[in-house]
Amino acid sequence: xxxxxxFLALLTLLAGFAFAGEPGKFSGYMLGDYYFVAANxxxxxxDMNGFWMRRIYFTYDQKLDDGFSVRLRTEMAGPGDxxxxxxxxxxxxxxxxxxxxxxxxxxxxxxxxxxxxVIESIWGYRAVEKTPLDLQKFGSSRDFGLAVKGKLDDDGRxxxxxxxxxxxxxxxxxxxxxxxxxxxxxxxxxxxxIEGYADYDGRPDHMNRHTLQGFIAYKxxxxxxxxxxxxxxxxxxxxxxxxxxxxWSAFAAAQVSPKTAVFARVDGxxxxxxxxxxxxxxxFDTTAKPTFIVAGLDFTLSSNVHVMPNVEMVTYSxxxxxxxxxxxxxxxxxxxFYKF
Length: 340
Known about the structure:
Layout: H1 2-19, E1 25-36, E2 49-63, E3 68-77, E4 89-101, E5 104-112, H2 117-123, H3 132-135, E6 142-151, E7 158-165, E8 179-187, E9 192-201, E10 209-219, E11 223-234, E12 243-257, E13 260-269, E14 289-302, E15 305-317, E16 329-339
Antiparallel strand pairs: 1-2, 1-16, 2-3, 3-4, 4-5, 5-6, 6-7, 7-8, 8-9, 9-10, 10-11, 11-12, 12-13, 13-14, 14-15, 15-16
C-alpha cells in the first residue's frame, strides 16, 4: 500500500509539471511473455505455463536551465519465482539530476551503472533476456551515487563512464563500504567497438568483490556480433580463500527481411552460481556449471511493437558434489515488447 501511495504521489507531481507548462517528456515500455516450462532441473515447476509481465517502465524527463535536467523512472515487475502470488508494485528505477557541459555529463542520484550499458545496447534484446552479468546477479544496473560520463575526443569515438556509489543498487545503504566502477571504450571504426570495465565493491565482514570485464563487438546496419568475458573475485570471509568466477558470452543478430530478424546467444560459467536459484523467470541449479543458450526470431509489427518467439535453455555439467548432472532447463516463450 505504501508503494502505491508513493507512486500516485509521483504521478501527481509529474502531472503538475505538465499542467504548469514545463517542458518534459513521458515515455515507457512494457515487455513480457507467454511461457511454457518444457523441462527443468526442478520438477516442481516443470510443465508450468502462463502469461507474465517481466517489466513495465514509466519515465519522465525534464530539461531545466543552464544545462541541468532530471529523470524519474519507475519500474514494475512480477516476482518471477513460480511460487509467489502478488500484484505488480512500483519501484524507483532512476531518480537523478544531470548537468551537461560539452561532451561531459555529471549525474547525481539513482542512475545506470557503467557495468553493461553498452553491451546491452549492442545486444539489442533486453526484452528477451538480460546481459550475462545482469542475469547471473554479478552486478546491478542501477546505483545511488555520483557518476561522470562523456567523450574524450571531438569525434566521440572514445568514451568513459565512472561512478562512486553506495553499492546497494536502488536500495537503502546499510554499511560503511562503498563501490567504485569505471568503463572505458573506443569505436575503432564505424563498426567495431571495444570496452574495458573494472569495479571494486566494498562489503562488510571481508566479503569484498571486484570485477574485470572486456567486450568487443562488430556492428552494421543489418547485423551485429559480440563477445565478452568477465572475471569476478569474491572474498569469502576472514579465514577463507577468495573465490573466482568467470563468465563468457557470444551473441549474434541479423536482419533477414525488413520486418524479421534472428538472434542467438550462448553464455558459459566457469563454476556453479550459488545465487542461481534466485534468478527470476529462469532459476538455475546451484550445484552444477551452467551453459545458457537463447535463440529466436524478432517480428516487427510496427516501429514500436515486436513479437519474438524464442527458446531459452540451460545445460549443466561438472557437479561440485560429484553427483548426477541436473536435467536441462528448456523454456519456449513468445515474448512481446512495445514502447511509447
